[in-house]
Amino acid sequence: xxxxxxxxxxxxxxxxxxxxxxxxxxxxxxxxxxxxxxxxxxxxxxxxxxxxxxxxxxxxxxxxxxxxxxxxxxxxxxxxxxxxxxxxxxxxxxxxxxxxxxxxxxxxxxxxxxxxxxxxxxxxxxxxxxxxxxxxxxxxxxxxxxxxxxxxxxxxxxxxxxxxxxxxxxxxxxxxxxxxxxxxxxxxxxxxxxxxxxxxxxxxxxxxxxxxxxxxxxxxxxxxxxxxxxxxxxxxxxxxxxxxxxxxxxxxxxxxxxxxxxxxxxxxxxxxxxxxxxxxxxxxxxxxxxxxxxxxxxxxxxxxxxxxxxxxxxxxxxxxxxxxxxxxxxxxxxxxxxxxxxxxxxxxxxxxxxxxxxxxxxxxxxxxxxxxxxxxxxxxxxxxxxxxxxxxxxxxxxxxxxxxxxxxxxxxxxxxxxxxxxxx
Length: 424
Description:
By secondary structure, this protein is of the alpha+beta class. It folds into three domains: 3-206, Rossmann fold, CATH 3.40.50.620; 238-313, Uridine Diphospho-n-acetylenolpyruvylglucosamine Reductase, domain 3, CATH 3.30.465; 324-423, no CATH class. The chain is 40% helix and 21% strand. The protein is built from 14 helices and 22 strands. It has helices spanning 3-13, 28-43, 61-75, 93-108, 121-133, 138-141, 164-173, 190-205, 209-237, 247-251, 255-268, 276-284, 376-382, 387-390; strands at 20-23, 48-54, 79-83, 114-116, 147-150, 153-156, 244-246, 294-298, 301-306, 309-313, 324-327, 334-335, 338-340, 343-346, 355-359, 365-368, 372-375, 394-398, 401-405, 409-410, 414-417, 422-423. The strands form six sheets. A six-stranded mixed beta sheet has the order 3-2-1-4-6-5. Strands 11-15-18-19-20 form a five-stranded antiparallel beta sheet, with no helix packed on it. α1 packs across α2 (28-43). The longest helix has 29 residues, at 209-237. The two termini are 47 Å apart.
């Protein structure tokens, strides 16, 4: 299939009546992709925009930006430039730049719109090899998908089936100029070492190496989709809530399926998946007695066990001491534990009561309609609030009297609206 046909197919798969954004670096691949997209947009009318991220990491950065401006001017494509700063603390410069770049894409490309990236078959082969060298599983070996949903946006790689040499031939026929990134020659970077030293050696022995590696990535992608479907079935059997899995259901699964389900749940929650060693530790804790304080932590997430449930969540932030604030009882107020989604009103009164919100400190009691005075501690136990969340419970007071444990119970003469107490 010709590059023009690939672009036409990509347009057909893009959300209709929405603009297509092309990530434009100034190199061969993205300059060709933008040129083909602009040509196709004349035949199949669709707004096409370009976004260039200037990382400012090298002296040539301004040259890349000006080249992108000139190209977009010739093509009549609006260009949006994102000036960013890369913070590489705690990770490599390549990973930090990628993270910063994608954050810029999120700011510019709206949900429901398409973002086109210019990776090609050579990039796919390098990605697979890097993943294999890191000891990645099926998801890593699947490389880059040609189409995927990402944070509400449709990310597409229309040129993924074509090699760089093929794309360069097309670019020269179309008389497209591009800039070579000087850092591409730095073989101290892993991807460049593969590109300049390893791949030429592989293709000199196996001429179809590039195509074969791309095919392996495609097959791994299919296997990953099947595993995702299996994990979804196991999630349903474990209660259907990724943040709270039934431990008894987990125990019925083989160890590989347990690991698969936990990784799937973390991905659904947009949490980092646990490293292999942490995951092994977590699975060992599933047989702990119910009263044990099980907590397994890894960067960006943690797991806890309580009452036959495995809880997966982001690490809890430290709360300000003696926090309190005024509240009129209407939903929407932001608190240190999240946004309040409930309303609280006098049963026979209008919204707008003068309330005071605090966090639970211990020893409080509430006079519950039809039940008399009840300790807040007992109410939280009855509501199955996990122990580590009880100190984060919001309490509402009116004229010095406790009138609600939000999301759990209200005093006689008061009513709550909504289902959830807060949204983090």
